[in-house]
Amino acid sequence: MEHSPGHWLYWTLPNATHAAIVEPDGTTVAELHTLENSVAHARLSANARLMASAPMMLDALRRLVHPAADDTDLENALDVIARATGAA
After folding, report:
1. Count of CB atoms within 10 A of residue 84's CB?
2. For residue 67, how many other CB atoms are within 10 A of its CB?
3. Which strands, in side-by-side order, build the sheet including 18-22?
4. Residue-wise pLDDT tens digits, 26-80
């Protein structure tokens, strides 16, 4: 079975204990729940952002391992990493 197609989005509210990963049409892919004031709560947005980046990361890896991979594929992978880590 294939995963839900990307580009996934994520949302959290400030100080929320809940985040959602959704498809562009709003269909929920996953929900994250944490306890307030926990380590997981402090990392909620970062974890949601990373999970939402999964389809783009998979695509970037597939491009990198392709025999015809070039610098454009490497640049794409670096861009995906930046988005997944919040550096973009």
Report:
1. 19
2. 4
3. 9-12, 18-22, 28-33
4. 999 999 999 998 999 999 999 999 999 999 999 999 999 999 999 999 999 999 9
3-state secondary structure the chain: CCCCCCCCEEEECCCCCEEEEECCCCCEEEEEECCCCCHHHHCHHHHHHHHHCHHHHHHHHHHHHCCCCCHHHHHHHHHHHHHHHCCC
pLDDT in tens, 2-33: 888 778 999 998 888 999 999 999 999 999 99
Sign of CA dihedral 81, 85, 9, 29: positive
Beta bridge mates, 19: 12, 32
Domain boundaries, the chain: 1-52, 53-88
Q: Which two tokens stand for residue 3?
A: 């995963």
